């Protein structure tokens, strides 16, 4: 699925999403799950073709025929890693289960709101004027928070330009995608002047200790993303003082049940959370919006409207209203693919019977 505009981060530029969908069909209902792995192993070790292979060869054969969503993680635990693939499979099973029961994902997870405030992630641009035009457009659309992707050489000046142009009232944060090292601490501390909500994943994903050290050298709150792959990782980060905020991405965590565990843990420890995004279609977006309605999600997430990324979504589009998205009320995810659109963008299908 082509993106409406290239999306550049510190680790690469995306112009399209190669989407892997998992469809589970049971005697009572069917459900959908979206794998958020990228085409190449740049954000994480997973990539979409590898996810399809591990689902086919290892994950599906490990599931009992009458599996419940709450048992998927336990059944797949012997298979190391591959959390994005596991999340897609668990979500599809959960969607089918909830559709059969007539219960929405939001209600099942414990949603406390009927709509959620939305932020938008702005990629690295070729110039500051182009960045300012993009931010102006998103603010005009009603987004309540702006996130700027940064990297060495594209950090202080673009952030300063956005602050000067749009003022201190705009909720503003930055995301480094692990592009810096602890030796950059003095440079990163220059961001303290701009009253940012947070700096997301400034250092390597596997180094909680260095993040804890950085947290003592900057005033801007540290948020972890790639570093948190489970509730256990979140607990370790909190104990070490590596962060005061966590970006909850269900795909990175292995599914929405583990994401809820991270939410509960953080809420109990006074750690703010928000829901991240991975350029999902309407299927993944519906699930993320339901998750973001939980009470501990006190910061706007990357749950943007459909047209932020896709000219045509595979579901009915999510439209921003007063800076918010409505939480789907129907059973399961509350949305389904539009058959004609799905047929148009589908390049391959494979059915596996348990």
Task: Kindly summarize this structure in a few lines.
This protein has 354 residues and is an alpha/beta fold.
Structure report:
This protein has 354 residues and is α/β, with parallel strands linked by helices. It has helices at 48-62, 69-76, 83-101, 105-109, 128-141, 156-166, 185-189, 208-215, 231-240, 250-253, 256-268, 282-292, 339-345; strands spanning 2-9, 12-16, 20-25, 30-35, 115-117, 119-122, 145-149, 171-175, 199-200, 222-224, 245-248, 272-275, 324-326. The strands form four sheets. The chain has a seven-stranded parallel β-sheet. A two-stranded antiparallel ribbon has the order 1-2. A two-stranded antiparallel ribbon has the order 3-4. Helix 2 runs antiparallel to helix 3. The protein starts with a strand and ends in a 9-residue tail after the last helix.
């Amino acid at each position: 699925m082509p993106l409406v505009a290239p999306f550049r981060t510190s680790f690469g530029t995306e112009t399209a999403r190669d989407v892997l969908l998992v469809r589970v069909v049971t005697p009572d209902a069917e459900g959908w799950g979206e794998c958020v792995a990228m085409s190449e192993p740049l954000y994480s070790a997973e990539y979409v073709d590898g996810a399809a292979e591990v689902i086919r060869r290892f994950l599906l054969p490990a599931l009992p025929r009458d599996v419940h969503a709450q048992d998927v993680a336990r059944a797949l635990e012997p298979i190391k890693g591959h959390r994005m693939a596991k999340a897609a499979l668990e979500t599809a099973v959960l969607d089918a289960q909830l559709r059969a029961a007539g219960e929405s994902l939001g209600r099942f997870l414990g949603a406390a709101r009927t709509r959620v405030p939305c932020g938008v992630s702005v990629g690295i641009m070729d110039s500051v004027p182009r960045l300012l035009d993009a931010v102006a457009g998103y603010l005009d659309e009603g987004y309540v928070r702006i996130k700027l992707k940064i990297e060495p050489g594209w950090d202080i000046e673009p952030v300063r330009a956005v602050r000067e142009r749009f003022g201190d009232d705009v909720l503003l944060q930055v995301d480094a995608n692990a592009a810096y090292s602890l030796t950059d601490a003095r440079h990163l501390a220059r961001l303290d002047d701009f009253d940012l909500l947070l700096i997301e994943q400034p250092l390597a994903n596997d180094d909680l200790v260095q993040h804890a050290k950085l947290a003592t050298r900057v005033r801007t709150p540290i948020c972890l993303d790639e570093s948190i792959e489970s509730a256990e990782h979140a607990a370790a980060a909190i104990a070490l003082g590596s962060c005061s905020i966590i970006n909850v991405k269900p795909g990175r965590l292995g599914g929405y049940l583990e994401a809820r565990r991270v939410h509960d843990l953080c809420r109990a420890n006074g750690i703010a959370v928000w829901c991240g995004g991975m350029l999902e279609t309407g299927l993944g977006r519906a699930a993320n919006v339901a998750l973001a309605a939980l009470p501990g999600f006190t910061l706007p997430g990357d749950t943007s409207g459909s047209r932020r990324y896709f000219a045509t979504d595979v579901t009915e589009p999510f439209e921003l209203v007063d800076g918010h998205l409505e939480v789907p009320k129907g059973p399961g995810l509350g949305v389904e693919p539009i058959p004609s659109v799905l047929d148009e963008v589908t390049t391959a299908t494979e059915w596996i019977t348990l």
